[in-house]
Specification:
Blueprint: H1 8-28, H2 34-38, H3 41-64, H4 73-85, H5 92-113
């Protein structure tokens, strides 16, 4: 399906699915700390990919509706761009902070929009 054929809710579902997957990756690999996260390249790669998807979905929603009611949506899009274009400078501690502190907020906000 082309992005122009999708509605905003489809992107919100993509965001929720990506958040769910991130927590599944961590749980199924028993990752509870930054050190454990840093030592698992497979999980790190998967989490970064899902953050890219979240950022892209939010970017597409923003292009459809610039009144986007999501806290820090510009930072989320910027994070996606940074992970993709500056992949060699991604800070694991920053990613871990996003996963622990910011994804729960995003999840709640997106659920409220559906």
């Amino acid at each position: 399906m082309q992005s122009k054929d999708r509605d905003v809710k489809a992107y919100y579902y993509d965001i929720l699915q990506s958040i769910k997957h991130i927590y599944q990756f961590l749980e199924s690999n028993d990752i509870k700390t930054l050190d454990e996260y840093q030592n698992n390249i497979l999980v790190k790669s998967a989490v970064e990919r899902k953050l890219e998807i979240i950022g892209e979905a939010i970017n597409r929603v923003y292009k459809m509706d610039d009144t986007l009611p999501i806290t820090n949506y510009r930072k989320i899009i910027a994070t996606r761009n940074f992970i993709i274009h500056e992949y060699d400078f991604v800070d694991d501690a920053q990613v871990w902070l996003i996963v622990e502190k910011h994804l729960p907020v995003l999840k709640k906000e997106v659920e409220g929009l559906l």
